[in-house]
Amino acid sequence: MIAIKNKEKLIENGETTLNRRARALALKSLEAAVNAVDPKKIMEARLSLKNNILTLDDYSFDLNKFKHVYVVGGGKASGTMAEALEQVLNKHITDGLVNIPRGNKHKTHIIKLHDSSHPTPDETGVEGTRKMLAIADKAEKDDLVICLISGGGSSLMPLPRGNITIEDKRKVTDALLKCGATINEINTEETRFRL
């Protein structure tokens, strides 16, 4: 459960009783919103394994029918998602790699966590993305590939094509960030750099 550490101090700083009540309500709402989108809680609530049947919402996968289970992905929440997935699947996972923001403190045993740059992509993200593609290339007809993607994935899993370099992508991303572009504008430009 995520809690605002200095919540009481923030509430006390309100000048009037009404202001303090408003602050308390706003902070309680903020905590509830953040906890509602906690990737670990979401994974735990929607993903289950019973009798080798992996269930995600209305989808079911009989793990007895798969020779290997591979996991790839990236994003700001992908480390947390990988931890939660390992708790459910554990020994069923053959191999995996997800690109996570540099400095995250997640721990996995099977899925490799590859530190990458966010919000500006760099060569470490390219390296991790290439490793993910190598894992996915191993998959055959009787294998399952699970892809964990969350916000920040376009920065953490860069793989420019053609004559576009990672340096080109960095320059455009930096310029967009500095000029105050919205996330939609940044993602639109990043999509153009993958084509």
Short description:
The chain is of the alpha/beta class and 195 residues long. 46% of the residues lie in helices and 19% in strands.
Folded structure, characterized:
The protein folds into 3 domains: 7-36, no CATH class; 66-158, 3-Layer(aba) Sandwich (Rossmann fold), CATH 3.40.50.10180; 160-195. It contains 8 helices and 7 strands. The mean pLDDT is 92. It is flat and about 65 Å long. The protein is 46% helix and 19% strand. α3 packs parallel to α4. By secondary structure, it is an alpha/beta fold. Strands 6-5-4-7 form a 4-stranded parallel beta sheet. The two termini are 40 Å apart. The longest helix is centred in the first third of the chain and has 20 residues, at 17-36.
Characteristic terms for this protein:
195 residues; four-stranded parallel beta sheet; Rossmann fold; 8 helices
CATH topology of the largest domain, anyone? Rossmann fold
Largest sheet: 4 strands, parallel
On the 0 to 100 scale, the average pLDDT is: 92
Structural class determined from secondary elements: alpha/beta
Q: Which strand order does the major sheet show?
A: 6-5-4-7
Question: How far from one another are the termini?
Answer: 40 Å
Which ranges are low-confidence, i.e. pLDDT below 50, for 5 or more consecutive residues? none
The CATH homologous superfamily of the largest domain:
Glycerate kinase, MOFRL-like N-terminal domain
CATH architecture annotation of the largest domain: 3-Layer(aba) Sandwich
Please work out how many helical segments DSSP would assign.
8
